[in-house]
Amino acid sequence: MKIKLLLFFTFLSYTSIFAQEVSNQEIKEIIKEYRSLHRGPYLKIEWFCDDGTKRDSKDPCPDKIGGIQHASYKPLTIRLQEKNHLFFGDILAYTDKGDFWDYPNQHSRLKQYQLNNYLESVDNGWIMEKAQYYRGSVQSEDEQEWGIDFYNWLLLSNTRIEEDYYLIRQSLKDIPHSGDNQDAQQIRSLSKVIAEENSKFMDARTKIHGQPDKSDIQLVENFMEEHKSDLSEKQQKDLDSLTKAMKNFYAPTDLSYFAEKAKNFPQGSFLRDQLAHLGKQDKDSITQQALIEEAASLMCEIRTELPEVQSTSDQLTALDVSLKLEEIIFKTAPEWQPKTLLEQLDKIYALSLASASAGNVEWWEWNQIDHLLQPQNLNEITIEELNKKLSLARSQVEWSTSMVKAIYGDVVEKYQGFEPKATGFIDDRVRSSLALRLGETVSELGKFIREQSKLSNQVLDLDSQSSFRGLNPGYAFGKLIVVENNSEDLEVSPENIYVFQKPPSDLKPVAGIATVSEGNLVSHVQLLARNLGIPNAVLSPQNLEDLKAYDGQKIFYAVSDQGTIIMKEEDDMSSEEKELFSKDKERDQDKISVPVEKINLDQKTVLNLTEVDAKSSGKICGPKAANLGQLKSMFPENVVNGVVVPFGIFRAHMNLPMPKQQATYWEYLKETFAQAEEMRESNIPESEVQNCQLDRLSLLREAIKNMELKPEFVSNLERGFQNNFGTNIGGTPVFLRSDTNMEDLGSFTGAGLNLTVFNVREREKILNGIKDVWASPYTERSFKWRQQYLNNPENVFPSILIIPSVDVEYSGVMITKGINNNNPDDLTVAFSRGAGGAVDGQSAEAWLLDLDGEDLLLSPARETFYNRLPANGGLDKKSTAFNTSILNKTNKEKIKALAKNIRKTIPEKTEASNTGPYDVELGFLNNKLWLFQIRPFVENKNAKSSTYLQSISPEVDTKKSINLQSTI
């Protein structure tokens, strides 16, 4: 029966995938089938001869030709490679090195090889469950030889080393080349497997994964003794293997290894001398501090000098030595227990240096931070200076974590569709890296500073409380929802508090948020949260894991202006906290109204951008066009020409009869909101009222998208294109930007709520895009934000700003104040490569620019893919490495000059009270600065002035000095 089923499935698979991608559901079935087969993904054992021919397993290649023996792939395995770019059971021997490096696909095949190794280690062989015992399928000596050849080929290129140092170094842990064992990986894998089979082992597993050290050996032995009567034969065997792996891993370091490796490098070279020095030391007399600091220094030397090492074989040896040094630091770090504050800072610096040398951050990134993290030769340090050290150290942990996600996220996401256990791979890489040890040490410093400052987070009963960092002040009460995986398609509720790995770019209203991946300070999500007083914080991956225990429970959540965080269960709320959400306390009092009294709907022809200025905002058009028109008059060389479609043209089209309705579009819209008010007066639940509104708005939105544009408007628009762009409609690629009267109202920002049509060129697409932009205020997301914060959300009038596309190399946002330090004299900028940078939540390169002092890198970019704007319209996806910064020195100087000019001239040209801060969108092409938007930067004053929020973050004397010899 089983054979019949297999034949049927094989037939079904062949017919369905021969000409197309295999679906995730089919791949799940393939994996299930492979697991049950003795040969798994393989067909049979064959000889692969050096002349390209193949022979039967019993017919070896002639000696004069030569060859190797291993398994061949099933046709279905090959189809997955060809149609889905999926590589299961990859055999390295005889694999083309370039194909395996897989440069055109962001090294997907290599990364899949690593991910497959992980899945096999944590899931009983995964697809190789039976095939791992298929004798002769893989020859270890051939795999080793191929691995050495692969690295000798790969390391020939210094460009590869510089662009992909982290990936190359990580791959050494998986690709056979040196015969080294993988005890650390085995420890994590076995402890996970044992805990899944025996829940009583979960506490031990949590300790081994979260805070591993050599005491875990005794922990496991105690468990075995205590539960020996309950253990199955397999569990006993796995526990024995785990104990053995731990004893091997935590065995005293044999430093003579380094003396032996030193002989590989040229006589008199610094690296040879330093390795020889370490190798001669007595492992029993060297202190943990000295060992870690020397190992970190050597790792730094290897990364710095690697491109200059003469032979690829020596480069490979150097990288293997670096891995050995990392292993020593990882297992020695818990034994170094600093006694003083100075020693704690020394440990943080050593671990940060080692982590950077391991490739967890790019070398240029580390060079921005290195001198700031180095302990200084002082007797005392202020709390303010100590907090800066903490922030810098914490950034190294966050940047390292984001590096793992950026490099492996694409492959893990691909596998998640058919293998959920792939999710654990990124966590495994983080926990096996020095970022784990650095994070532990930074948390200890954070705890010390909070004690000295009499500040403390109170986040339920979680460990590592100092890993939480507040972004936006506010408070919320609601159900806690922990979202571990992809959040883009998640349906959120305004009543809930969400914890995300990364928030969706089109987030609908929520009560509160916390994220592992901050994205960047000036994304639309962050700006909305800051503007609307939604509490928002950053936390560590371990914090997210710990919060799963409270998923679905109602909690109180608050973030102060100073970044203090409180999260507690409903039963633990104080009377003051409960009063914040009492029914008689109308939070709706903060709602605002869209001003419509000054709107001019008589302007029914398009305008040139030069015909509008700041005074036009809310009258003829929205603030995007009005303010850009103002900028055009001030900076004519840095602002493109543009066409403005005013409110009046939209309103004129809304007066047309709506198909299938006995009303115009406008009358239907008014009736939608009138009907909602009648339902509320009849005490119908608000959820039903909102659903009714959304249903009607959905019909309206689709009708607007399909309406006929007035011929006189199209003719008028044609003239606008000729006047401003020198072409007919369709002759130049343009952006269509929604520009409503609800944006930038002083206490409400509509950042990112409505549609922008990117780089569209075809005439029909431009005309349809205009209707799409008009329809976008009636999407569910836009409506829900407006409904929650505006008194009259029906009075939204969209104008449209049409500007030609500028194919900028990088773009982003400038805020004319320091967001992190609240300094009005500083600048906060965030940039991503390509067009549309930093606004949609990308992990952008962010800087704090000091007009008179040193610029500070707040976060590096961690987005592999970005958009460029081809002349024929649409978007081209490009990819990048992270080994160079986005902004150069010239760019930063131009941004500073622009900010200085804007601060001076905007109040002069508009209103004296319009003093900022400002939110400016801009980009660079060939180092020329282009301006795309300026708007007020709006923060929630109520959240900042809340008596309760002030009470949980008392004033701190930041100038208080602390002796560096203080006990930690």
Automatic annotation (TrEMBL):
Catalytic activity: pyruvate + ATP + H2O = phosphoenolpyruvate + AMP + phosphate + 2 H(+)
Enzyme Commission identifier(s): 2.7.9.2
UniProt record similarity statement: Belongs to the PEP-utilizing enzyme family.
Source taxon at top rank: Bacteria
Function: Catalyzes the phosphorylation of pyruvate to phosphoenolpyruvate.
UniProt KW keywords: ATP-binding, Kinase, Magnesium, Metal-binding, Nucleotide-binding, Signal, Transferase
Pathway: Carbohydrate biosynthesis; gluconeogenesis
Signal peptide (from-to): 1-19
Cofactor(s) required for function per UniProt: Mg(2+)
The Pyruvate phosphate dikinase AMP/ATP-binding domain, residue ranges: 622-946
Species annotation: Mesonia mobilis
Protein name: Phosphoenolpyruvate synthase
Pfam family, one: PPDK_N
